[in-house]
């Protein structure tokens, strides 16, 4: 789900409070999915999107990342419109943020929502 422009910390918290997590591309396929979402689902001014990676660890569970793009070395990870990942030392930039939500409640609208094939545990799924 596209939650608009936010800083990294707010994006992580907003996704968590929605019962999901900030998008964590764990494969080339998932990275490409977010790139497609960024290129066709956003305005031309949206060139960067936060991804749920900080210092080579997933923001949701603090585990080492399983997949990376070549230009990402460390820091707060962002995906650029071209599909490349970059790192920044500042989490205060306002970039597009996309939440991954588990496919558990089919009564909620899913427009603009990305569901991933892997499942993950959630602590709060009260929003709909």
Give structural notes.
The protein is of the alpha+beta class and 128 residues long. The protein contains two helices and seven strands. The chain has helices at residues 8-17, 28-40; strands spanning 2-6, 21-22, 48-54, 57-58, 76-80, 85-88, 95-100. The strands form two sheets. The protein has a four-stranded antiparallel β-sheet with strand order 4-3-5-6. A three-stranded antiparallel β-sheet has the order 1-7-2, with helices on one face. The radius of gyration is 13 Å and the shape is globular. It starts with a strand and ends in a 28-residue tail after the last strand. The model is unreliable at 105-113 and 117-128 (pLDDT under 50).
Give the key terms.
single chain; 128 residues; alpha+beta; four-stranded antiparallel sheet; three-stranded antiparallel sheet; 2 helices; 18% helix; 24% strand; disordered C terminus
């Amino acid at each position: 789900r596209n939650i608009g422009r936010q800083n990294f910390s707010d994006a992580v918290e907003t996704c968590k409070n929605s019962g999901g997590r900030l998008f964590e591309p764990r494969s080339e396929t998932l990275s490409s999915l977010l790139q497609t979402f960024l290129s066709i689902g956003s305005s031309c001014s949206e060139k960067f999107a936060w991804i749920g990676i900080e210092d080579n660890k997933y923001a949701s569970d603090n585990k080492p990342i399983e997949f990376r793009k070549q230009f990402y070395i460390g820091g707060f990870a962002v995906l650029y419109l071209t599909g490349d990942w970059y790192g920044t030392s500042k989490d205060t930039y306002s970039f597009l943020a996309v939440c991954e939500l588990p496919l558990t409640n089919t009564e909620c609208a899913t427009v603009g929502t990305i569901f991933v094939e892997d499942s993950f545990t959630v602590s709060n799924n009260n929003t709909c």
